[in-house]
Amino acid sequence: MNQLDQLESKSIHILREAYREFSNLCMLWSIGKDSTVMLWLARKAFFGHCPLPLVHVDTSFKIPKMITYRDDLARKWNLNMVVGQNKEAIANKQTFPDGALTRLQCCKALKSEALKHTLSGEWERMRLNHTTGEYEVDANKEPYTGVIVGVRSDEEGSRSKERYFSPRDRQNDWDVDDQPPELWSQYKTDFSPGTHVRIHPLLDWTELNLWEYIQRENIPLVDLYFDRGEGTRYRSLGCGPCTSCVESTSKNVDDVVEEIRSGKFANIAERSGRAQDKDDGGGLETLRRDGYM
Amino acid sequence: MSTNSILDRQHMDIVIVGHVDHGKSTVIGRLMADTDSLPEGKLEQVKAMCAANSRPFEYAFLLDALKNEQAQGITIDTARCFFKTEKRHYIINDAPGHIEFLKNMVTGAARAEAALLVIDAGEGVQENSKRHGYMVSMLGVKQLCVLVNKMDLVDYSEAKFEAIKTEYTDFLEQLGVHPTAFIPVSAREGVNIAASPKAEMPWYDGMTVLEQVDGFEKSRGDSDKTFRLPVQDIYKFTASDDDRRIVAGTVTTGTVRVGDGVRFLPSGKESVVKSVEGFSMPVQTEAEAGHATGVTLTTQIYIKPGELMVRLDQPQPKVSRRFRVNMFWMGRPPMVMGKQYKLKVGAASVSAELAEVIQVLDASELSSVSNKKQVDRHDVAECIIETTRPIAFDLRNELEMTGRVVIVDDFEIAGAGVILEALDDTGSVMAEHIQQREFAWERGLVTNEERSERYGNVGKLIILHGEYGCGKRRTAKQLERALFDMGHKTYYFGISNYFEELDHDARTRDRARENHLEKLGDLARVITDAGSLLITTVTDADDFDLERLKMMTAPIEIFVVNLGENQFDNFPIDVALPYRPEMDNAIKTIVDTMKAKGILLK
């Protein structure tokens, strides 16, 4: 087995473990490359099927192509697609692009808060009806007790301390000082009522591993990751107003792999195009403790 | 880099351990800096931050990404860093040295294929130098290299280095551990990390740390060992028009091929591998160690998640409810006797209890205490564990990976250990319970024969078994009605319904169910001895469940009516009924069989 085979097998093992142990399980799909690889791994784990609901938090500021891509793939792969949103903040223009909040406050409102209340079932969930092709209010209001998230250890400091199975308490808090032990493919799958567990199948992957895997498996990605003739592309996807392109002429997966492996990005952090990271001196920790993914 | 080299490129997890303040984080910081593995600008950023806070720059700060950790100045959790050499990509787990954070150290070490153990040249061998050496060997890390750090503070003295080497080698020998090397370094000064220490230590002619790291060997040959696959789940995605019934799991050791005869333990069911399944990959005919895979079988057999799949033509694992383990305890509350824990082995989890503490080992001194009745936090203990149902496992010295257990206490993984020996059931907690119960049993003046004559039946536990919704409750109640109307002494005990509807969470239900079956056994013993026909329902039982009920109600045999598919391997069924049977026929069949077997006398 080579490195990609090892990474793939471990991720699949973790996904299957989560699927067996949690009856209210969902997977976060941000539409970005990481969680799309995770979705692909789920289809591998479950032999072509994805028996888990995929939850996307729509801030309404996502680059429009992302939403089109999301719904196209959801139809093609017959995905159980669930979408949540902070409708109140968006309607009242309480956001950064509207000038009412700082970037970090906006992330907290449109992502962390929206996610928290979507997972708990307190806020309306919209679910894709494959018969009509439209989103409708999801009747299921049960809280999700297991949430699969595509974070990686190499992204930034706080993520390097994550467990594969990481408990969060009722307030979504992450007690980084007192994490459970994790050894020999045995994970924390028991949890007391009121808590939930985040599951991180991609913890061991690096950005380069992901791109090599995308290349090997021919995984379809939104084309924002590639240069479409303007000499720029996105390296990391987020909301339009807070995510900038990098200068790159990589037009396809092969170009990107080369660029990250040995070219100009070999030693530049992936999230350098994400403005909110820089607003927080300690990396994303403040947001992470608050439930940011 | 060519495409070929991606496929060949190796990946390795290593862990760095040692006593607090002996300089682990500094070693990693140096390794990352000297191998050019830091993101651009990171070093400058940390240096600038140190300058802003008027602190001297240290390589250790590179790792202390979390604010609170910088505040305390010690590593509390395993942080993972990536660095690469020409040869490999590494994940290095920085394990905390402080005893309070042992569970974090264990998390880092259990992931690793090799360990670097750091000892301060000035302070010498400390308590956690020894404890970590012990833990690393117990966790199964095969390669250990000792770094004697802070050599700059002892003037690069060869004598100091040799003294530590001698002392620690003696300690490791008691554990049967042979380190790959002892390397003198100064991480702070960057001496002997990536560059040879010719100027500082002309007397040293061994490897640098980097050469040693690249010199660690990848474990290989797992695919040639005996085949084991803990079954994680059985998938059937019929709703998506997929009729395959796939047994899924990760191969821990060995290889299995299409056509191989396989056995599932503890149930003992057998079949033959029909196909190796996968998605978006070429057709496979075998699955080897490390692969998260799935197989279909040539026959329809009923197996449960958690069983161990093995090959018929290879050495078989042990199946037992009692075994001797070497374990360490991380939970704040101690492990005590008489309390129910959950034990996880492979993909299985079962209720377990501590049956006996043989000895508790002081890991830093390797001396033992033999009269303890519990296992305290941070103890390493040899003890006997008993599970409520049999599990399949290997012994640590035969197949290490399937010989490892963890113990969950109140939702937390609190203990972990390796199985040394399988023991037989005699003297088990349940056997003892039954023995005590029977010993205390005082009989009255009325005999069983007199009761039978009056009631027209012998006492018997009648179990209606089948999956959820098969009609067993309806049948049970109708049977009670029919037997009562015929003049028999009978009672329908309906509390097991509670366990079906209690909770959709399988694990909570399983534990409640185990307790219920045990109580049912005791209850049935009394009521059947009183001459009654006790009718109850049980869902999704296996041979072991029925064997246990039979043992608990002995000498009165149990009478089993199965509705729907028969999931039992060997346990004899008295009446087989279809799923949701037609009621009048069902009752008639049961009553006729009870007459034929001499349970109903009139």
Q: What does the model show?
A:
The complex is a heterodimer of chains A (293) and B (602). By secondary structure, chain A is an alpha/beta fold. The longest helix of chain A has 19 residues, at 3-21. The model of chain A has no long low-confidence stretch (mean pLDDT 84). Helix content of chain A is 33%, strand content 13%. Chain A has helices at 3-21, 33-45, 64-76, 87-91, 103-120, 207-217, 253-261, 275-278, 285-289; strands at residues 25-28, 53-57, 80-84, 126-129, 134-137, 146-148, 165-168, 196-199, 232-233, 246-247. In chain A, strands 5-4-3-2-1-6-8-7 form an 8-stranded mixed β-sheet. A two-stranded antiparallel ribbon of chain A has the order 9-10. By secondary structure, chain B is of the alpha/beta class. Helix content of chain B is 28%, strand content 29%. Chain B has 15 helices and 26 strands. In chain B, the strands form 5 sheets. Chain B has a 6-stranded mixed β-sheet with strand order 2-3-1-4-5-6, with helices on both faces. In chain B, helix 13 packs parallel to helix 14. Chain B is elongated and about 105 Å long. The N and C termini of chain B lie far apart (88 Å). Residues 65-77 and 500-505 of chain B have low confidence and may be disordered. Chains A and B meet through helix 1 and helix 2 of A and helix 1, strand 2, helix 5, strand 7 and strand 8 of B.
